[in-house]
Write a structure and sequence with these properties.
Chain A: It comes from Allomyces macrogynus (strain ATCC 38327) (Allomyces javanicus var. macrogynus). Chain A: Pfam families: Sdh_cyt. Chain A: One of its GO terms (biological process) is tricarboxylic acid cycle. The complex is a heterodimer. Helix content of chain A is 72%, strand content 0%. By secondary structure, chain A is mainly alpha-helical. Chain A has two domains: 2-51, no CATH class; 59-165, Fumarate reductase/succinate dehydrogenase, transmembrane subunit (3 helical TM bundles of succinate and fumarate reductases, Up-down Bundle), CATH 1.20.1300. Chain A has eight helices and no strands. The longest helix of chain A is centred in the middle third of the chain and has 29 residues, at 64-92. Chain A has helices spanning 9-18, 22-31, 38-50, 64-92, 97-105, 109-137, 144-159, 162-165. Chain B is mainly α. Chain B has helices spanning 2-10, 43-55, 62-73, 75-79, 84-89, 105-124, 126-148, 153-178, 185-212, 216-224, 226-234. The longest helix of chain B is centred in the C-terminal third of the chain and has 28 residues, at 185-212. The chains are: A mainly alpha, B mainly alpha.
């Protein structure tokens, strides 16, 4: 079950303040172990609210493919960018191409080939999906049917990314 | 495709049929366009314009066209006014329309200020969107050239700039979505500035590889073929 994590206490307090009924304050005051200050009551109310179950949302969405492909586009883009930025920072720190080649050649064979696939597949996915995004931005392929068909094209290109690895 | 993208981004929003004409006209030009029907105070001028336009077709101006439509919408009751009003107003014909707008200095200054404000706002809005898409399109031939042809000093520089810019814009969107400044004031600000710092360092790293080393495309090719080339060397 997914629970929304409230990171900052300010957000937690504002969430509690937004919709607090008198009944909830009574229940929270009964459950709160510390004193009956207004601040403690609000925090107790927020704690009680967080214990409630959330309705299913992401998992019950019927047409899940466009949603999953959209987040995968961001995920692959972010992952590839993180890798590139890591390499770029290493290069800025003084590493040259020979150092990169040495470090990569020292990897054991399975990790080396798995790593190449782990870069080629997201790259193919992000590129073909990016072209799909640009087609959408120009007004094409915006029907549900076309979205699914172009989505399958992207997945096909990702599956055949192994040809990039050789 | 860039042109269609630009056109798609620059076409103005469609006006609903119920919107009065004055709403779609910029603020500085409004005094020159006739007031809408509900704002007219003298019904006689409306009927006078209607009668003069029916009498003299050459004397139609943009104002009278608007008044024609408004008068036509409220047809029968207003035309029942006596014709004495029309003869009084007949000598004063409305001026002929010209395609050039004769604006006073103040009106021209107001129009320029409004256009500049809209353009400045557009640079953070729709123009940024178009430039981002143009950058993505420009990335395709650059990467294709780097994969197919390989090392090339000019293409390596173009690759460095476009790729790092594309990555920065994408990561900036991720930071904006997941560490918003409104919810995490200090965390969002720190993430944004950290991203900018990293981008500058990565740009310097790419520049170093391109100028002091073999170049981005060649170094990536060597890393990609590290095992094959090592076996060739060892064999």
């Amino acid at each position: 079950m997914l629970r929304t994590a409230i990171a900052s206490p300010l957000a937690a307090r504002s969430l509690a303040l937004r919709s607090v009924t008198p009944a909830m304050t009574v229940v929270a005051a009964r459950h709160s172990s510390s004193g009956s200050q207004p601040q403690d009551t609000l925090q107790a109310v927020a704690a009680v609210k967080q214990l409630r179950p959330t309705s299913p949302h992401l998992t019950i969405f019927a047409r899940w493919l466009p949603m999953v492909m959209s987040i995968s586009h961001r995920f692959t883009g972010g992952g590839l960018s993180a890798l590139f930025y890591g390499a770029g920072l290493a290069a800025a720190a003084g590493a040259g191409s020979a150092d990169f080649v040495q470090a990569v050649a020292a990897l054991p064979a399975p990790i080396f080939y798995a790593g190449k696939l782990a870069i080629a597949a997201p790259f193919a996915y992000h590129t073909v999906n990016g072209i799909r995004h640009l087609a959408w931005d120009s007004g094409r392929f915006l029907t549900l049917d076309a979205v699914y068909k172009t989505g399958y094209v992207t997945l096909g290109a990702t599956a055949s990314a192994r040809s990039l690895c050789s | 495709m860039i042109r269609s993208l630009t056109l798609a981004a620059a076409t103005p929003a469609r006006r609903y049929a119920g919107t009065p004409v004055a709403r779609s006209v910029p603020l500085a030009l409004r005094p020159l366009i006739s007031a809408p029907r509900w704002a007219s105070t003298t019904p006689t001028t409306a009927t006078a314009a209607t009668t003069t336009s029916t009498l003299t077709t050459a004397a139609t101006s943009s104002a009278s066209i608007a008044n024609e439509t408004t008068a036509a919408a409220s047809a029968a009751p207003s035309t029942a006014l006596p014709t004495s009003a029309s003869t009084d107003a007949a000598p004063t014909t409305p001026p002929k329309p010209t395609n050039k707008l004769e604006l006073s200095d103040a009106e021209q200054a107001a129009l320029d200020a409004e256009r500049k404000a809209a353009t400045d706002a557009q640079f953070h809005g729709s123009h940024h969107w178009v430039y981002e898409r143009a950058l993505s399109v420009a990335l395709l031939p650059t990467i294709g050239y780097a994969i197919v042809v390989g090392a090339d000093p000019v293409n390596d520089m173009i690759l460095a700039s476009t790729l790092v810019a594309h990555m920065h814009l994408g990561l900036d969107q991720v930071v904006t979505d997941y560490v918003p400044v409104r919810r995490y004031p200090r965390g969002g600000k720190a993430a944004n500035w950290a991203l900018r710092g990293f981008t500058l360092l990565v740009l310097y790293g790419c520049w170093r590889i391109n100028t002091q080393d073999v170049g981005m495309a060649e170094s990536f090719r060597r890393v990609w073929r590290a095992r094959e080339e090592r076996e060739i060397v060892e064999a």
